[in-house]
């Protein structure tokens, strides 16, 4: 079957999946005022969860990177992900066990997501046909851009849908819990996204950064200032009484936009060029300090929020150290931006960890964990483990892109280092092979000298031993013939 046939099959299957979604779930087991029944999640729904997590969390991001580098495996991987999505979507409408209210956020977002997937597949089919004459040639660039933008947005769509799936499966974020739940997931996801962007910028984004003529802190400070403005006017319902943590949330927004504006100003040097500064790191640090002292009702919630605060403080402090002492106000540790210092990964990873800690610290999650018997140490270690897995996967995707997109740059870097080594060897008057040969000769001569010394030592020992033996033999001979010599001497004297 050709690639075009695969695309058409995928479109047809997606259409059939939409028809299958017309199946209605029962709600007769759902207690009044609740959004889920008390029934357990059955095996069919577990397969749906695992399958869709693998497809949208791994395969689609992998296919996106393969498409960016124009790898021949892009189409097969995306087709496999599409087919598995159809299977998972069907399983989501065939399960028994736990029931969910109709119109939940996961179900609402699934329908437009499927239509976007159908559109993405259709754009892929059109681009594979290579219709470039007349009107087709004029609209093809538009479709190419739309296909690229939509493909790069799919990992984000998948992340949001997975979060919605977890919320729906557990019946969270309803009623009075909606506000704080949204705040935790949005801010936690923002920290993870911040970490992902810094990973890309650290490993492959330096060339783009040079083209912009800006320092990283310029973009960080702009986002911090914008986020601060949103927090200042949304964390408290103006016109009502100040309750619970309104003061902390609102003042946190104020310091964000204040510090963000200062960071934008400091991102330019006296000569107008890009300049690194401490502001984003300091904002992260002081935000962590504020969150570590956030009052909580449950002990496990207080411990989780405190660890979130400490993690943010560590991220901010290490970011300041990186800027001031590791790269010394430069964008990279090397002039060609192909090298990184191991310390630079610490603030990046800590942002991943902070994001997962905050996403896992909603009121309902804390009640669930407290009732399960898991202590705060085990729970925090689980969240850190998720952060490491996400950090690993992002680095793998960036590595895949880097080894293909920057292959010529890396090869030139390798040749340059080899040429530098050869030049250094020529200045010393020897080549690499000569050095090895000279080293072998020296080792051989040293071994010969050692053997000669050993032989000389052995010869001396043997001569000493022979001398001693002769002396002993002479003494023995004198002892045996001594009396006879004495008698002969007396006879001579008498005569």
Automatic annotation (TrEMBL):
<dbReference type="Pfam" id="PF10348">
    <property type="entry name" value="DUF2427"/>
</dbReference>
<feature type="transmembrane region" description="Helical">
    <location>
        <begin position="278"/>
        <end position="295"/>
    </location>
</feature>
<feature type="domain" description="DUF2427">
    <location>
        <begin position="29"/>
        <end position="130"/>
    </location>
</feature>
<dbReference type="Pfam" id="PF10355">
    <property type="entry name" value="Ytp1"/>
</dbReference>
<protein>
    <recommendedName>
        <fullName>Integral membrane protein (Ytp1)</fullName>
    </recommendedName>
</protein>
<keyword id="KW-0812">Transmembrane</keyword>
<dbReference type="InterPro" id="IPR018827">
    <property type="entry name" value="YTP1_C"/>
</dbReference>
<feature type="transmembrane region" description="Helical">
    <location>
        <begin position="307"/>
        <end position="328"/>
    </location>
</feature>
<feature type="compositionally biased region" description="Polar residues">
    <location>
        <begin position="464"/>
        <end position="478"/>
    </location>
</feature>
<feature type="transmembrane region" description="Helical">
    <location>
        <begin position="378"/>
        <end position="398"/>
    </location>
</feature>
<keyword id="KW-0472">Membrane</keyword>
<feature type="domain" description="Protein YTP1-like C-terminal">
    <location>
        <begin position="158"/>
        <end position="401"/>
    </location>
</feature>
<feature type="transmembrane region" description="Helical">
    <location>
        <begin position="340"/>
        <end position="358"/>
    </location>
</feature>
<feature type="transmembrane region" description="Helical">
    <location>
        <begin position="109"/>
        <end position="129"/>
    </location>
</feature>
<feature type="transmembrane region" description="Helical">
    <location>
        <begin position="46"/>
        <end position="66"/>
    </location>
</feature>
<feature type="signal peptide">
    <location>
        <begin position="1"/>
        <end position="22"/>
    </location>
</feature>
<feature type="transmembrane region" description="Helical">
    <location>
        <begin position="149"/>
        <end position="170"/>
    </location>
</feature>
<keyword id="KW-1133">Transmembrane helix</keyword>
<feature type="transmembrane region" description="Helical">
    <location>
        <begin position="73"/>
        <end position="89"/>
    </location>
</feature>
<keyword id="KW-0732">Signal</keyword>
<feature type="region of interest" description="Disordered">
    <location>
        <begin position="445"/>
        <end position="495"/>
    </location>
</feature>
<feature type="transmembrane region" description="Helical">
    <location>
        <begin position="182"/>
        <end position="205"/>
    </location>
</feature>
<dbReference type="InterPro" id="IPR018825">
    <property type="entry name" value="DUF2427"/>
</dbReference>
